[in-house]
Design brief:
homodimer, Nucleotidyltransferase, domain 5, 5-stranded mixed sheet, 10 helices, 12 strands
Chain lengths: 302, 302
Amino acid sequence: MSEALVAGLELGGTKCLALLGRGQVICDRIVVPTTSPADTLGQLETQLRLWFQHEPFAAIGIGSFGPLALDRTRPDYGFITNTPKPGWADTEVAGRFGAAFGVPVGFETDVTAAALAEHRWGAAQGMTSSVYLTIGTGIGGGAIVNGRPLRGFLHPEMGHVRVRREAGDSFSGICPFHGDCLEGLASGPAIAARSGRRAQDIPSDDPVWRPVAGALAEIVAMLILTLSPERIAIGGGVGCGQPHLLSLIRARVATMLADYVADMDINALERIIDTPCLADQAGPLGTLALALAAIEETAGAG
Amino acid sequence: MSEALVAGLELGGTKCLALLGRGQVICDRIVVPTTSPADTLGQLETQLRLWFQHEPFAAIGIGSFGPLALDRTRPDYGFITNTPKPGWADTEVAGRFGAAFGVPVGFETDVTAAALAEHRWGAAQGMTSSVYLTIGTGIGGGAIVNGRPLRGFLHPEMGHVRVRREAGDSFSGICPFHGDCLEGLASGPAIAARSGRRAQDIPSDDPVWRPVAGALAEIVAMLILTLSPERIAIGGGVGCGQPHLLSLIRARVATMLADYVADMDINALERIIDTPCLADQAGPLGTLALALAAIEETAGAG
């Protein structure tokens, strides 16, 4: 059976994508800058309308920056909630597009969408627990557990976990909320603040990578001991652009676990901790995966 | 529809339980000491045989100390694997009882069983993500996500997460693997090593509770930011016996999150972080819940 034609929206802090696709094949896409909700969502809706008039799509998947309200029993379901991004707090997203096109809508964080793409089409296929971490302008994580996105009271906010500090690392961190949480210590802007250079310009043997890898190894070890994932894909600009960083992280995780977890040796860690096999397409493809999941959920509930 | 008659086994480090029950009503139970696998499992099987001959039960649920092999595609599925407990490494458990009685067997860690009981019959009913933490001789955690136990490469080993140290806390920790992991800092034996007294004999205003609550708050905040649970039940001898500890933990978690998670204020934390509503019966009832889940899984796959 060929998969349904679906639409996807990826809402980011500086730009948004609209996609049309069938399975993991993207048929068309446009990019619009993220300005105000009225302008940006309006442009995206106009594009979806053009596609829909040509050939109706069966569902829409939306992966968005957060925080998001994901509890379907609450009146604010489908909203971007208390984001500090000017103009975007309390913006209805899912309901708007569902009402405009009369199709099922899947709505999750951008990183959960990427995790779902890796689970549906990437290296995490068939896994009962898998994680997608992005290390870039911010740090975020999503997980797919027992076939569905992991969420509950809210959704994961893995970038803001407090981690142990590398011995001797006195960098105070740049997170406006928490100072030296993971994002404050190891995001792209944190690396830039530590070194005065952009991550992509820093050689792999520079000492700045040591505390960065240390902080990232803390979250990876912690995820292994709590979510027991079969795979942790580390993407984003920093994650994908620095292959040596993954080696540093794996070695540190192996030391931290100290052979406690059976079979979790460095060889296993090389399989578990890797870049996303969908590379920078995990996020966009994730929106199509969300749309397909919304169709399946509607069918299952019907 | 009345629920099926099922059997449960709870395998602990010093004693084991066998239970017979219907729904959450326990009809009969026995306790046997944990000696050798041949003796202990033999006694449990003899008891199950007596019950079975009187009225056949439809499934068996087993909650066990770990580590356990839970991947059904592997030849060691259903074994207790590399436990340091003398005589118990590489012991087949699930397959043995399944073969003896010809019924479906559910097999998970003891803490996952307790988490499942809270999800089926306790305060976590209907939740998409919920956690059970036990603080006692050791520290362990289980989670139910999207209706099923959380596991993947292995199963959670939450007690061995490394947490930030309380400022000024110089206790070196007692974990033989990791020193100052969570279990090394905040388990019953760690509290005893810190203070020279048993946890239950220490007054609630004793300064020893401060670093213990601090370490536990670290894992709770971390779980909130990764698993986004709607509930974290904290049980076990230390967890259930020290109500003031929960207040300390909640206050510390609120400070750590720094209002980052929407709606996660101290009132929400009072609802989320609590003792298990099944109290010390969460573990035993969890084995019955595992048996019922095994029946449902068999029916779903058939």
